[in-house]
Amino acid sequence: EGSKRWGKRKGGGNGYGNGNGGGGVVVGKKRVMVVIDHSTGAKHAMMWALTHVTNKGDLLTLLHVEVEALVIQGPKLATVLSQVRKLEASVLVLSQTKPSPFPWSSREEFVEECINKADCLTLAVRKQSKGVGGYLVSTRWQKNFWLLA
What we know:
Helices cover 24% and strands 22% of the residues. The protein has a single domain (31-148), classed as 3-Layer(aba) Sandwich (Rossmann fold). By secondary structure, the chain is of the alpha/beta class. The relative contact order is 0.18. The radius of gyration is 15 Å and the shape is globular. The protein is built from 3 helices and 8 strands, in the order E-E-E-H-E-H-E-H-E-E-E.
């Protein structure tokens, strides 16, 4: 069935809060966008989105940006943010990597910028180690919270 947590709500809104803290009836369908590449983390992000965000009838958009090709021109961040606006995504899901030993990696910076600048709810997910299980999820409001699923 999927998740009823992130549905569009009556009275407008984009499925992640309507400003008054109230509940709401889940209606309509939403577009969930997942940024993918050839990594295992991207596959985990896609599976997490399918099992925790989408419902029957929702649209799932997989966005793969080929930065070196001329298929999609421009920097990765600007392209992703542009596609979120153009496709009116309700939720953007990204893969999150383990923290780098370096002060700030370009991948971590990209994920953080997407979380802070996207016009929709943005979730970065990383599968926990096999011994622990679950996922680490980061949003604009909470970093690396553990979700056992």
